[in-house]
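Field reference: sequence -> structure
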Amino acid sequence: VRSGAVSPLVDVLRGGHPEARDHAAGAMYSFAVEDENRAAIGVLGAIPPLLELFAGAAGAAGHRARREAGMALYHVSLSGMNRSKIARAPSAVRTLLAAAEARDRSSEGDAAALRRLAVMVLANLAGCPDGRAALMDGGAVAAVVRLMRNGSVAPGSAEQEYCISMLYGMSRGSMRFRGLARAAGVEAALQPVAEGDGGVGRDLARRTLRAMRGEDDEAPVT
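Structure field:
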């Protein structure tokens, strides 16, 4: 990264040969695992082509390229600065939600892996103000309810915890979330989890339900 490898890889992600894009996405994922590289990856413009590749739009990208791009995006989104960059990228939230809701009967295992990466990135976005606004603008509240109620995410799974974490992030001090949550049926989706045996998911579900009722401790914001 210090030697300037990121910019040429971004060029490959944008318009390279499909196999070269696969390898470029893999390299970007390897770079993004290291915390000290994440800011450079965001500043040097890797986020938009990674999103495009993850969406499968770059020359009908295959599963490997999409998976590597998704892993890179997840690690990049662990940086607060990059969360805002992803949130402000055109159609980023809709791209991620589309991957989260995609179903492929011919290759459900691949679809499930991409679905998990999408909800992991989306849950990270809920950790910043720009991300929360973009999620609500993009219809994430209703999308998460669909995921939880149509069997796309299994009860007690890591994916379910990410979905609940996303809802909790959006709920923090937001009167807007309360209206969206009521319309989407968040309470019905979360109540079984809140009444469950325990774990992080149960605690977050209970806190989200309290926020919906105006019982959270945070000052309301628009």
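Note: The CA atoms of residues 142 and 183 lie 8 Å apart.
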